[in-house]
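Course exercise 7: structure representation. Students receive a sequence record and must write out the corresponding structure in token form. The form below is the worked example handed out in class, using DNA-binding transcriptional ArsR family regulator (111 residues). Read each field label carefully; the graders check that inputs and outputs are placed in the correct fields and that the protein name is recorded exactly as given.

STUDENT ID: A-19
EXERCISE PROTEIN: DNA-binding transcriptional ArsR family regulator
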Amino acid sequence: MLTIAPEIEVLARFGRALADPIRCRILLALREAPAHPADLAELLGISRTRLSNHLACLRDCGLVVGVPVGRRTRYELADVRLGHALDDLRTAVVAVAADVTCPDAAEKGCC
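STUDENT ANSWER:
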């Protein structure tokens, strides 16, 4: 039986996933179309091992799923609404903070 996670937990998972630029790039790539790991690694210019670690994180967060296709696994967003959320968030951030930086992010633990 599927259970719905509390809203705060869901937002925290999404935030953890977006906290890493590579995971952001993976999510944005999968927003465009499902992909196999080898193709994603090539597209992003990273090793398959590094990609695998990030995909595991995104799976654990419930944001992507692996779909068996023959002997290979294709990855896609767990829910089509995640693509819409990424678009909305990306647009909102660009509209609100296109020229804003977070200079003391490391000190404050934000960003």
